[in-house]
Specification:
- By secondary structure, the protein is an all-alpha fold.
- The protein folds into two domains: 75 residues, no CATH class; 148 residues, no CATH class.
- Helix 6 packs parallel to helix 7.
- It is globular and about 70 Å long.
- The termini are far apart.
- 22% of the residues are buried.
């Protein structure tokens, strides 16, 4: 039998395995739909939903803060004790019910043992003083006080590293924003006061060991850098200052700022080696008289 008849016969009712393989193409498998780039997995929130959720959380946090700010109150006697340096002694001598009474008056949590109440009230007084200072600075800044405006820049800074970066950033654009040496001097004083306030937080905060010399000298290194910046500023602009402005600069550099109580000397006490050689005779006299 001619095998070709087997392949070509139109009467063949049953196709052979060979014809199945040679004559029919296998249907292509259905393609899976392509996943869009960045698409969220099934059941997960979309990017738009996440953005909306973040907005809701942010709005709730803002509303909570506004409510806390509106209800913020600190009993005047607590502030008076703090200014007199007697706050801890006074709080320690109070009974637990009295401490709870002060907490309720101040709109803060009043549960817990006595030592927690004392700490809570102490922190509240510090916050009250900080707010009072910011309000005073804002009032002066609104009247175009360059020193207050510069110090106010540090009010919302959270960390010492951020304070260092902010000081450097503001000093870098000092010449562009303030054309006269007198204006620049006032801005430098404000920046240094703002920086020193963050230095104080660092050397008295929970991680103070790395700033106050116990585990590291980060705080002193930062203060040295600010002093070196002052030296460069006075070398460049010192002779352009009036006698009164020069005295203002020298008085400030040897002023005992809040960090002095924690072993940090005035900013004029370091970083000024050989500085006197760049001064006029009158400036030398003012510097020497204030330094010693």
């Amino acid at each position: 039998m001619d095998i070709r008849n087997f392949f070509d016969s139109p009467t063949t009712s049953k196709a052979s395995p060979v014809s199945n393989m040679l004559g029919k193409k296998k249907a292509p498998a259905a393609k899976e739909p392509k996943k869009q780039k960045g698409a969220a997995p099934s059941g997960s929130p979309t990017a738009a939903e996440l953005r909306e959720a973040k907005k809701i959380v942010a709005a709730a946090a803002k509303a909570k803060k506004e409510k806390e700010d509106k209800n913020f109150y600190c009993p005047p006697e607590l502030i008076a004790w703090k200014k007199a340096g007697k706050l801890h002694t006074k709080l320690r001598d109070l009974t637990t019910p009295d401490l709870k009474g002060y907490c309720q008056e101040a709109n803060i949590r009043y549960g817990g043992p006595k030592y927690e109440l004392v700490k809570r009230l102490s922190d509240h007084v510090i916050e009250a003083q900080s707010r009072e200072k910011v309000d005073a600075l804002q009032a002066l800044a609104d009247e175009q006080d360059a020193t207050a405006a510069a110090e106010l820049l540090f009010a919302k800074v959270k960390s010492f590293n951020a304070a260092c970066n902010l000081f450097d950033k503001q000093f870098a654009k000092l010449n562009k924003q303030h054309p006269t040496a007198a204006e620049q001097l006032r801005v430098m004083i404000g920046l240094t006061r703002g920086f020193d306030s963050l230095l104080l937080k660092a050397i008295t905060g929970p991680n103070r060991g790395q700033y106050n010399g116990k585990y590291g000298e980060t705080g002193m290194d930062g203060q040295n850098k600010v002093s070196e910046t002052w030296r460069g500023f006075l070398v460049e602009q010192g002779k352009a200052l009036s006698e009164d402005d020069w005295k203002m600069a020298v008085d400030f550099l040897f002023e005992e700022l809040p960090t002095f109580e924690y072993g940090f000397p005035p900013y004029g006490d370091h970083g000024f080696g050989g500085f006197e050689e760049t001064l006029t005779e009158g400036q030398k006299e003012v510097w020497a008289a204030r330094k010693f």
